[in-house]
Write a structure and sequence with these properties.
The chain is an all-beta fold. The chain has helices spanning 14-18, 339-343, and strands spanning 2-3, 10-11, 26-31, 37-42, 50-57, 60-66, 91-94, 97-99, 108-111, 116-120, 127-131, 135-143, 149-156, 163-168, 176-177, 187-191, 197-202, 211-216, 219-222, 228-229, 238-248, 254-263, 272-279, 286-292, 300-305, 311-316, 324-329, 335-337, 350-355, 361-366, 374-381, 385-393, 401-405. It is elongated and about 80 Å long.
Length: 406
Amino acid sequence: YAVHVATGTVSDLTDAFANNAQIGVVDAMWSSPSAAQLVIQPRSVNPDLYRASLNISGSIVKVNTIESEALTSNSTYRDPDWGFATKVTNYDAIGSYAFNLSDVNGTIATGDYGSKYYIVDPQSGQEIYNRVPGVYGVRDVTLSHDGSNIYFMGKGDSDAQFELYGCETLLCNDLTKLTSFKTFGAGNADASPVNDTIVMQAVPEDSSIANIYTVEGTAVTRISGDETLAVPGADDPTETWGDTYPAYSPDGSKIAYARDSKDTQGPNTSQQASIVVMDSDGSGKRVIWSEDVGGSSNAISHVCWSSDGAFVLFIRGYHDDKEKVYAVNVATGTVSDLTGAFASGAGGLPNGMWSNPKTLGIVYAPIDVNPDLYKVSLERVNGDQLSVSSIVKLTTEHHYRDPDWI
């Protein structure tokens, strides 16, 4: 039953659930505080959870729809609570399956390259997920600074290429397409930790070279791409041949990114792979690391910051025995080579990695067709260097892609 508090009018919802193949008899139910929805636990030995939407007209309540696909898939959920989340880093997601996380652990959000995104507890590996209506290829997931909104790259039916989408984190309400680049190469979105700005890479329509952009609402601003930069060890200034993998610093004041570049006096081939740090508005660009790559492209990937803002971490090379994992001290330029620790660790060399903004650590996906995620703890050594202290397997579901850790 649903009873209208003011009038006492009773709405009988029994038949709507009884006639539904997924539900039948309702064992328990809990309401959403932000929408006319219920999460339903059917009477079963190991019940999954289902979501039902309600139609409320005056004092009368009717069941509008019951989703045919279960909200969960592990058959272990009991007595959930559906609560507001002003910060995803500290909320009850679903009762005993709750992410009551400390600031040290944070929260991981990730996509599956399908139509779902996941919120994952990095301590236990438990998850909840949401389907994104009308969008597929969900990847490059990133959470807003307060955890209330989630952003991701995806393709709608009318999209020629991947675009940036956003919606409310827990229910995916108010799904909005935020960009219309219409060209390949858009991706690697990262949300600012202090405001509602997203940084990402994209290729403008009049070019074949990726630049860095900021997105605030639907306002898109290019902040890299047309400048020459001095590179330590290079004879001449260099101009970009692609700016990629942007990442905000933990305090939101800086952005680090990877740059493939060519000598302004040389042939049209990539000569230098560099890490550039700039202010969040695109000013003050400075190369903190560079290496001659001899004409290869895609030399750097998965740029991220240490939680104290002192180091930029990245992968040098791509899926071969020459791959390296480096951490560069932003102030001194000192390089820590972490390759050996990954190569000999539980997951092997990384395919991608993403930093924990709360403590010194990263989550990474190994080179694998269906990678799990591994949690890596880091420690500072010799003043201006980093080392790996432990690597622990975090997940077992084989569907995580491009996570963000807030």
